[in-house]
Amino acid sequence: MSTRLTHTDESEHHDGFDPELHGSAVRPRGPWFMRERPLGIFLVVTSVIGFLASFELSVDKVELLENPSARLSCDFNPFFSCGSVMAFEQSQIFGFPNQFLGIAAFIFPLLLGVLLITRTPIPGWVMVGLNIGLLAGTVLVMYLYYSSIFVIGIGCPWCIVVWTVTIPMFCVVTGYNVLAGNLGRGLRDNGFVAAFAGTALLIAILWMLLIYASIVFRFWVYFGSLIG
After folding, report:
1. Which CATH architecture has domain 34-227?
2. How far apart are CA 137 and CA 90, in angstroms?
3. Residue 54 near residue 102, CB atoms below 8 Å
4. Which candidate, 199, 192, 191, places its Cα nearest to that of 175?
5. Distances (CA, A) of 9 to 12, 19, 216
6. Helix H or strand E segment including 136
7. Three-state DSSP class for residue 81
8. Structural domain spans, the chain
9. In angstroms, what CA-CA distances link 44 with 40, 109, 110, 128, 145?
10. How far apart are CA 145 and CA 166, in angstroms?
11. Contacts of 148 (CB under 8 A, 6+ apart)
12. How would you class 77 by CB atoms within 10 Å of its CB: exposed for 0-12, middle for 13-18, buried for 19 or more?
């Protein structure tokens, strides 16, 4: 796990791999997320979006605590209402509002994104740590998705925004770590796994499309009325 994102001379700079760590042969140009700046920009943009959504949810939660009858900015209708979802215990899994956890969780990938943009060398174990954190976040997101849409039966608009950035972040960082060898040479050198990892963003898009489709299906009464 010694792989790290680093930069070389302009004449040697390629897809984000360090030739010294992966052999003398320069590998073919890899996916866009194997280069420091594109990956850094991706992490910064998605982290900022997730942070702002979590922050807005936190503000709404505080407002709701102060005034239980308050109408929040994301209380659109009976089908999509952050305030209604916040009334259920699933909104405080760890004994405090989930949105506070979201604010803290997006700081780390935001910081790493900035470092990547400036081409600051980042050890492989740090990227693996980010991957583990995003895995935990994705598991939590999927639990909240199921609870909100299928158990509670109400969608939380700002929560959906958080889901929309968390899952792609997890997929892309996993794809990077696989191709960089941070998760082991066996995975990196496996042609099938490498090809799969190279389509990380596409996998994330398909994943989110399934989630969006299930939301439309679950609340078809509402969406059908818009069409009709």
Report:
1. Up-down Bundle (1.20)
2. 15
3. yes
4. 199
5. 5, 12, 50
6. helix 124-146
7. strand
8. 34-227
9. 6, 7, 5, 18, 24
10. 12
11. 85, 90, 154, 155, 156, 159
12. exposed
Written as six digits, the tokens of 28 are 């073919």
Q: Looking at the chain, which runs of residues are DSSP E strands?
A: 4-5, 122-123
* pLDDT tens over the chain, length 228 residues: 444 554 444 433 444 444 333 333 334 468 999 999 999 999 999 999 999 999 998 888 888 878 877 788 788 888 898 888 888 888 777 777 788 888 899 999 999 999 999 999 999 999 999 999 999 999 999 999 999 999 999 999 999 999 999 999 999 999 999 999 999 999 999 999 999 999 999 999 999 999 999 999 999 988 888 886
First-to-final CA distance of the chain: 56
Question: Are residues 170 and 162 in contact, defined by beta-carbon separation less than 8 angstroms?
Answer: no
Please report how the helices 98-105 and 36-66 are oriented relative to each other, as an axis angle in degrees rounded to 10.
150
Query: Where do we find the tokens 């320069």?
Result: 26
